[in-house]
Amino acid sequence: MAKKPAFALLGPTAGGKSRLAMQIAARFSAPPRIEIISIDSAQVYRGMDIGTAKPSGTERRAVPHHLIDLLDPTERYSAGRFRQDAMRAVAQIHARGGIPLLVGGTMLYYRALSEGLDELPAADTAIRAQIDLEASRKGWPALHAELASVDSSTAARLDPADAQRIQRALEVYRLTGKPISELQRKSRIDPPFELKAFSLAPDDRAELHRRIAERFDAMLRAGLVEELAALRKRFELSAGLPSMRCVGYRQAWRFLEGEIGAKELRETGIAATRQLAKRQLTWLRSLPGVEPASELEKALTRA
Strand (E) positions, the chain? Predict the structure, then answer.
């Protein structure tokens, strides 16, 4: 029996994925109806609306959205949980006779869905403590450089300040003597549906940078800093939480702590977003079988 199809629209932040997805979904208003599943590691957090460019209430009423507002910013989400949640959402949409369209830029989540989770060694408390001690002395950028010397492909996808993932990659290497990227390639578990991916990647990098700056400025005007201040009053947050390491919130946190001023908030926020987009494009180039976004609507019509 042939597998039912699901579609993914991938691309860098500020590249126009959500807008294109909404435009296409509007043209499929009659059954089979499109329902959107978010592939975004930040939109899962309740209350983090402005800095994640979360779809508005109007948009979510017009087109069903899934995997948004799942947990409080004090909680942690994972690629494993995303895979389970996404497969359940796809099955439910298929059961309603709809078409699942996964949209986002968290490439680690997409790979967990498309290929399955890797059989990596369990966490080692002693090694993690040693890595944390080294980071406190030398800084995470220095450990990122160490990672690059033993696993350049993983290091290329990680921000030098991404403590959680740098720590895990170094931990795996020290436990096994092998790069995490090598271990991740050894097994593949396909999802129980046919997943077709499409990429919305701009040809003009300067245009993407312009969009990134415009969007970050719009977030600041919309109240990104005020949103974070309200969340800090509502929840017991810390700078080390995954939610607070999200681009935009990390910089706004430093502003509220008095570590940077308004000008540096804007500059570092835009720079961090550009770095994120660069890593997303690196991931995209490594994914096999991804078609251009211009082919998505044709594929949906044939579904």
Answer: 5-10, 34-39, 65-66, 99-104, 194-199, 291-292
Do 36 and 87 belong to one domain? Answer: yes
Q: Verify that 51 and 199 share a domain, yes or no.
A: yes
Lowest mean pLDDT among 16-20, 117-121, 174-178, 220-224: 117-121
Residues 53 and 192 in one domain: yes
Query: Which tens digit of pLDDT belongs to each residue from 27-40?
Result: 987 888 999 999 99
Half-sphere exposure of 9 (CA within 13 A, CB side): 28
Pairing of strands 99-104, 194-199: unpaired
CATH of the domain at 142: 1.10.20.140
pLDDT at 239: 94
pLDDT one-digit tens code per residue, 134-189: 999 999 999 999 999 999 989 988 888 888 889 989 988 998 888 888 876 655 67
Work out how many domains the chain is built from and give that number.
Answer: 3
The reply to whether 198 and 60 lie within a common domain is: yes
Query: Are 105 and 74 contained in the same domain?
Result: yes
d(CA 12, CA 246): 15
User: CA–CA separation, 112 vs 49, rounded Å?
Assistant: 25
Single pTM value for the model: 0.82
Query: Cα Rg for the chain, rounded, in angstroms?
Result: 19
Residue 198 belongs to domain with CATH number: 3.40.50.300
Alpha-carbon torsion, ordered 45, 49, 51, 56, to 10 deg: 130
Say yes or no: 98 and 33 in one domain: yes
- The predicted structure's pLDDT at residue 186: 56
**Domain span at residue 240?**
205-281
* DSSP per-residue codes, 123-167: P-HHHHHHHHHHHHHH-HHHHHHHHHHH-HHHHHHS-TT-HHHHH
- CB 138 within 8 Å of CB 166: no
